[in-house]
Task: structure prediction
Amino acid sequence: MPIRISIFGIILLLFFNLSYGNEVIVSENSEIIEPPLFGIVIKGDNLIINPNLDDIFAKKNLSSFLKPQTLAIITSIHKNLPYVYLETDTVKGWFNQNFIQILTPSDFDKISNLEKILLTRSLKIENVTYPPATKLPLLSETKKSFKVLIATKEVFIEKEILKNYATRPLSPEFSNIKKLTKIFNKKPYVWANSESGWDCSGLIQDLFSFLNISLPRNSFDQINYVDAIDVTELSLKEREKILRQSKPYFTLLYFPGHIMIYTGKKGKDYFSFQALSKIDNKKYGYVGFFPLKKTGLLKKITKIGYISLNNGQGKKFSYLKYKKEDL
Result:
C-alpha cells in the first residue's frame, strides 16, 4: 500500500525547496495568492528564474524542466506576464500558467497518494510529450499494461500504458541501475533538462528516481545530501584507491558545477556515467560513459559521495547560499 501524504505534509516539504541554478527572483510585478492554489503540470516546460529580464528565455534564466503531471503549489501570479510562481517538492520558480491546471485540494491529495509508475521511453499522450522518468499516477495493472490517471486542461482521463513503455519503481540493485543507463545513454546534453535531453544533475536525479531514491535538483546539493568525503588534497593514486573501494553506480563524483556517477574500473582507467557538456575547452554535449583519467576528470574531483540505499531517511536539503551552476 502507498504511504499516505497529507496536503499539510506537502506544504511542509516546500520549506526544504531549493531553486535550480541561480536564486529565483520574486518579481515586484507579482501578486501573492492567499491561500495558495494546488496545481498540476499538463505540459512540460522550463521554470524561469527572473521574469523581469528583457529576454526571459535566455539560457542562464532557464531553470529546471518540469515534466507533465508534476504536482505543484502556486503562491504568486505575475501581473503582466502569463506566469505563476510555483513550488514542487524539489524546485521552485516562474512557470507558464497555460501549462498548469488548478486542482481541488481533494484531487491534489488523491494524486499525491496514488502509486506511481515511471516512463522508460518518451511517449505522446493527448499531443503532449512525456519524457523518460515521468511519473504517472497508477490506477490499476494488467499483465500487459498499466492504467494511469492523466490530468488535462479540462478533465482527468484514464490511459493504458503498455509495460514496454513504463515500469514500477525498481529495487536499488547494481543490475537494475546499470540497465537504466540505457534509457539515457547517447541522449543530448541540455542545460536545465528538456523533453529530450539532460544536464548532469538532472540526469542523476531522474536515474535514481527509478529506484525510488529522491535526490535534490543540482550538483552542489546532491553531493551535500549524500555521505561524502573531501578528496581535494589527495593525490591521484589516493583517489584511485578510494574508487577501487567504492560501489559502482552508487557513488557520486563531484567538482564545483558538475556531478557524475562512478561506474567502475575497465582496464587501467576508471569510468563514469554522466551528462557532459564540456571539459575545459573540449565539447562533448551528450550523455554517456567517460573515462576519468584519460579525460582529466579524475584530477578535477573534489568530493566523492555515496548513495544511501535507505533513501536518505533523516537527511535534509542543504540550506547554503551558493551560486549553483551545472555544466
